Amino acid sequence: MPSSEPRPSQGMTVGRQGDGPALEVRNLVKHFPLTKGIVFKRTVGQIQAVDDVSFELYPGETLGLVGESGSGKSTVARTLLRLHEPTSGEAIFQGQDLFKLSASDMRAARRDIQMIFQDPYSSLNPRMTVGDIVAEPWRIHTGILPRNEQRGRVSELLELVGLNPDHINRFPHQFSGGQRQRIGVARALAVNPSVIIADEPVSALDVSVQAQVVNLLEDIQEEFGIAFLFIAHDLSVVRHIADRVAVMYLGRMIEVGTEEQIYERPVHPYTQALLSAAPIADPKRRAESERILLEGDLPSPADPPSGCRFRTRCWLFNQMRDEDEATGGNRTEKCITDDPRLEDGGFDHPSACHYPQERHIIASAEVDRVAAVRPDDSKMVVRDDREIEDAVKKEEDAQIEAAEAKHVEALESRKAKTIDET
Ligand code: ADP
Ligand code: MG
Question: pLDDT (tens digit, 9 = 90+) per residue, 303-316?
C-alpha cells in the first residue's frame, strides 16, 4: 500500500497530492421522508440519513468509510450510484455530475463505478454458472468484449481472483462464502472499473476469510489502480487496506485523515471511542489498552441532538460537564447549541468537534485487522443495475419498516416532551 502524503486540509477535505480526484462528492444530502399511516400516508418528518457529506476519492487509493450501523454509509454508496436520488449535492466523476446524468448516461457510468456489497437476502443467481455470472456485465454493457473472447477472459479473471478456472461451469452453491465473494470481485473487474464501492464486503464472513478477501482486494487495487471506497462498521477491518479513513456519525462525516492520522492521532472523541472498541485478540494487550465506553444507541436521524450530534454519547462532553460543575465553567454549552463543522481544528487533519484533542488509543500494530467473528453466511454478491435495484429495494423495505417505527416513536416522544415543557 503506497503511503500517502497528507495534503494540507482544504476546509472540508483531505486528499492525496498529484492526480485530481476520481470522484469528488460535494455537500451530499439524502433525507428520506418519514411517513406514518397505512392507507393515508402522511409525512411526519425527515430521516437525515446523510447530511452534508463531502469527500474526494483519488485514483488508486482506498478510502475507508467507517461508522456504526445506521450512520449513513450505505446511503452514501447507494446515492452515488443513484439507487437513491440525492436530496442535494454533487458527485463529480470524469468531469460530470453523476446526479445530473440521464438514465442512459448513468447506466454507462455504472460500468466505471462498480459496487460490491453484502447482500443479506440472496446469493449469486443459483441457476447461473460461474462463467455466466462473470460474463454477465458484458451482456449488460455490450461492445466491451466480443463473444468468442469472453470464455477465455472469464478464465483469466477467475484465476486472477484466486479461483480455479476449471470450475467455470460450476454453480454458486458449489463454492464457499469466501469463494463466492471472489466470484463477485471477478464480475466487478470484468468491465475494468475505475472506482469500486464495496459496502461491508467482508462483514458477513468468517475472520480468516475476511483477511483473505481484504488481501485480494488490496492486490487488485494495487495492480489495476482502482479507487476503492471501502465501507465497514468496524475500524479494525479497514486499517490494513485504507490509505485514508473517513469516520461517519449520524449522517455526518466527523473526522477524515490518513490511515496514520486516524489510528495514531485521532482527535474526535467518537473516533477515539470507536478505536477503543475495536477487538484486540491478544489478552495482554487487551488488558493494557484503554477502553472508552460508547454509551447508549445511535440517536434517531429523524431527530438528531441539537448542537453536536455526538454530544449525547460523548465521553468528553460528560467529563467536561462534570469538571465544569465543580469549577463553575460552561464549556459544554457550545456543544449543545453549536453544530461543529468538519474543519481544521489546529491538528493535521479536520474533525467536527469543538474540543478536538489528540489521544493515542492503541499502538498501530495492536489493532487487529479483522473484525469480530460472525457466521459465514456467504451472502456477498456483485450485481448490476436492475438486480442491484431489486436487491436494494428488498433490503430496504424490511429495513425501513423496522426503522420507521423507531423514528416515529422518537419524534413523537420528543414532541410530547416539548408540549409538556411549554
Ligand atoms: P449504515 O450503512 O451506516 O448502517 P444506512 O445508510 O443504511 O446506514 O442508514 C442510515 C439511516 O437511514 C438509518 O437510520 C436508516 O434507517 C435510514 N434509511 C436507510 N435507507 C432508508 C430508506 N430507503 N428509507 C428510509 N430510511 C432509510
Ligand atoms: Mg450499511
Answer: 999 999 999 999 99
